[in-house]
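[Discussion] Sanity-checking designs against the backbone

I'm trying to build intuition for which residues belong where. Below is a structure token string of 125 positions. I'd appreciate it if someone posts a full sequence so I can compare it with mine line by line.
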């Protein structure tokens, strides 16, 4: 977990520096806000890892581990044959396009995204 935590923290620091320098060079509020959101998202993930996954004991944290030591490590349940990821991408594209073109399309995209997310959760159990 420490390697992943360092990765997210260093990525957040990079995007914060990038967003600050972008503001001084381009004076573009939209790009600066998006880079700020990216920094905030990376920090939220790092905070979650620090609080909830502190004692995870992942394979990557052991410096002397061989690939054979990872055998049997439980990493989760994955749905291999599902059309839901494709349709989630379509729903996200509809949501983003709807935010630009028509709010009603954004609402439909959000409804579809919630439905498909629930479908993925139900099918993964």
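Best answer:
Here's mine. Compare freely.
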């Amino acid at each position: 977990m420490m390697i992943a935590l360092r990765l997210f923290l260093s990525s957040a620091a990079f995007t914060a520096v990038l967003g600050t320098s972008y503001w001084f060079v381009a004076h573009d509020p939209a790009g600066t806000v998006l880079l700020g959101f990216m920094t905030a998202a990376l920090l939220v993930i790092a905070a979650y890892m620090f609080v909830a996954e502190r004692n995870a004991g992942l394979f990557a944290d052991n410096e002397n581990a061989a690939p054979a030591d990872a055998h049997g490590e439980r990493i989760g349940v994955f749905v291999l044959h599902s059309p839901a990821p494709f349709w989630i991408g379509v729903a996200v594209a509809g949501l983003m396009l709807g935010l630009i073109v028509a709010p009603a399309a954004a609402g439909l995209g959000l409804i579809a995204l919630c439905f498909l997310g629930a479908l993925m959760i139900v099918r993964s159990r």
